[in-house]
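TA notes, week 10

Several of you asked for a full example with nothing omitted. So below is the full record: structure tokens for the whole chain, then the designed sequence directly under it. When grading your own attempts, check the secondary structure regions first.
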């Protein structure tokens, strides 16, 4: 028996979320929370010069264009060929979960199972209802992809970059000083003597080499 899959969820909000849902067989997706969030931003004046209806339309248009871009990068030209094709590789999910819910999906790096996903979802749901005085009623900034002051921790953060830059300008050669934050930089400081500075290639010659002159 063949059935159509319509997903109505508050979770999908990014292009890759939609690309995964369609890639695993969804025929339609209703991201009601994302649309309601846009409507609220417009109603509270945080998004200006657009009405609620147009704001939702712009969001859906952008999401559709994003899915088309994902398909294009995979060399697929029609949604019919992409839908349900499962052209993905799972990372961080154990084999039992993949075999049951993402059958035939390739996976070379295993990880968490259904219990861990459920606990993370419950924790995220509870966190959404916490009143945090420092946020003054606003949503958490997240910081999943890029460092944010109150967001998720990243190994590559301003403390690391500013420290390495400062010590580099000061000419420090101490391994611990340059690698004081989580082994972000791997330096071979005992690998041999440095070439004399007067033998450095001039900047103009380096540029010419890169241009193929």
């Amino acid at each position: 028996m063949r059935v159509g899959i319509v997903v109505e969820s508050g979770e999908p909000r990014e292009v890759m979320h939609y690309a995964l849902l369609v890639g695993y067989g969804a025929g339609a997706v209703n991201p009601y929370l994302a649309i309601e969030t846009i409507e609220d931003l417009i109603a509270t004046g945080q998004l200006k010069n657009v009405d609620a209806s147009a704001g939702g339309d712009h969001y859906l248009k952008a999401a559709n264009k994003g899915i088309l871009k994902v398909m294009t990068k995979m060399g697929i030209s029609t949604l019919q060929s992409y839908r349900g094709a499962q052209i993905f590789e799972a990372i961080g999910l154990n084999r039992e979960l993949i075999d049951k819910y993402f059958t035939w999906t390739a996976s070379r790096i295993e990880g968490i199972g259904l219990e861990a996903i459920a606990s993370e979802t419950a924790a995220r749901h509870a966190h959404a209802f916490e009143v945090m005085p420092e946020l003054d009623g606003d949503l958490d900034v997240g910081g999943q992809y890029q460092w944010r002051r109150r967001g998720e921790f990243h190994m590559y953060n301003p403390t690391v970059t500013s420290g390495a830059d400062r010590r580099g300008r000061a000419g420090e050669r101490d391994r611990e000083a340059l690698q004081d934050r989580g082994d972000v930089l791997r330096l071979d400081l005992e690998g041999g003597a440095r070439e004399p500075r007067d033998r450095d290639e001039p900047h103009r010659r380096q540029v010419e080499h890169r241009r193929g002159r």
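The mean pLDDT is 80. Use that as a sanity check on your answer.
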